[in-house]
Amino acid sequence: MSHAEGVNIKRRRVLIASTAAIASVGVASVATPFVRSWYPSAKAEAAGAAVVQDISAIEDGQMIVVKYRGKPIFVVKRTPAMVATLDKVAPLLADPDSSASLQPEYCLNQSRSRAPNILVVEGVCTHLGCAPNYRPEVGAADLGGGDWYGGFFCPCHGSKYDLAGRVYKGVPAPRNLPVPEYKIDGPILTVGEA
Ligand code: FES
Q1: 107 lines ligand 1 (CB under 6 A)
Q2: Which SS3 state, helix, strand or coil, does residue 161 take?
Q3: Is the pTM of this model over 0.85?
Q4: Which of 93, 105, 118, 176 is most buried by its number of CB atoms within 10 A?
Q5: Phi, psi of 88 (to 5 degrees)
Q6: 8-12, 31-35, 58-62, 154-158: least confidently modelled range
Q7: Where are the domains of the chain?
Q8: 3-state secondary structure of 90
């Protein structure tokens, strides 16, 4: 078995284990695998090299986390139902058009992405830098009930973001989660290159 095959099999096991965990606890909490991309080396990564990740094993609605330049990058495979929430939630957001937020020009759209079903954002709260939790469950009672369409919740001071990383009104975070440069070629996501 080649090294790459070994890594792929290992990652698949992590994803499968995570999915099983989600099934066993229901929607109250969501496990997020922190997957290891197969290159560059740690040294090259620290220097800012692009990170390559096979995203074919991500389940619908699931999030994985990859590391780029020392930051967690959230990668969510959005379902059509999730994409449909992006319009409904807009009136609740501080910057629904992302006019005051950071993203590449090719992601300046409602889904803030190259492809509507794949979200790629920095997992760093724009308030004071905590890591938001992935909370995809629509209507979560602790996050506003009917006003919650799924997204990310920062436990530090209560900031909320939708499923495109757009920040809600009336929370401490001032901006949407930044979108890094990235490209998608078939099942391969490359963060750090357009
Ligand atoms: S760091 Fe996220 S709300 Fe303060």
Answers
A1: no
A2: strand
A3: no
A4: 176
A5: -65, -35
A6: 8-12
A7: 3-191
A8: helix
Could you report the per-residue pLDDT of 104-130, keeping only the tens digit for each?
999 999 999 999 999 999 999 999 999
Cα–Cα distance for residue pair 152/40, rounded to 1 Å: 28
Q: Binning pLDDT at 50, 70 and 90, where does residue 48 land?
A: confident
Q: Is the CB of 127 under 6 A from ligand 1?
A: yes
Measured CA to CA, the distance from residue 92 to residue 169 in angstroms comes to: 6
Q: Which residue's alpha carbon is at the smallest distance from atom 1 of ligand 1?
A: 128
The class level of CATH for 3-191 reads: mainly beta
Q: Active-site residue among 10, 13, 157, 169? A: 157
Ligand 1 contact via 157 beta carbon (within 6 Å): yes
Residues 6 or more apart whose Cβ sits within 8 Å of residue 15:
33, 35, 57, 58, 59, 62, 64
- The confidence score (pLDDT) of residue 47 equals 63
